[in-house]
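User: My collaborator sent over this chain with a note saying "see what the structure looks like." That's all I know about it. Can you take a look?
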Amino acid sequence: MAQPESLTELLDGRRAAIDASLPAVGFVAGWLLGGQSIWGGTIGAAVFAIGIAVWRLRNGDRPRAVLIGLLGVSVAALIALRTGKAENFFLLQLFSNAASALAWAVSIVIRWPLLGVIVGAVLGQKTRWRRDPALLRAYSRGSWVWVMQYLIRMAVFLPLYSAGLVAALGVARVALSWPLVAACLTVSWWVIRRNLPAGHPGLRHPVGQEV
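Assistant: Without extra context I'll predict from the sequence alone. Here is the result:
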């Protein structure tokens, strides 16, 4: 398969994963320094989130993407403040991973695997990749790796959340951000390559008939 690019190169999930974990670090740091104060955690998360937003805007990122990131941190902090439980700062992350696992699994079942949708959009193919039975099969099998990624996070987060272990949740958030995303990209790329027949022209050149 003449395809030099990997999924890591195409999708580059490092920045998003790191950006998503830093406000959690700020929340835990503020919570600890403030004597387990949720307000202290909120201020810490806000400082990190605003710092990331300013940095991204100065580097030419789209304001919409930056605002979505700020909104996510604001909602997480508001949930913790309204409920009076610091661990609820991570509740949005739990729901997000559960919803993502379900969405990816459903996409495979209905033969619109999200890995193909995302890579196809990045490569400007729209839906042409679906006309290639080999690519459709490869993306479907590769998408199961992403389902497992979200299930792994839930398996780690749920016990920590149930026990109210705020600091451990922060550590898990960092440990299961870029390292897990990098592993997911690597393994799903391996799965795709294993499921494309010899001589296939690669992700950029779908072949085959209408699906």
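A starting point for your reply to your collaborator: The chain has one domain: 7-195.
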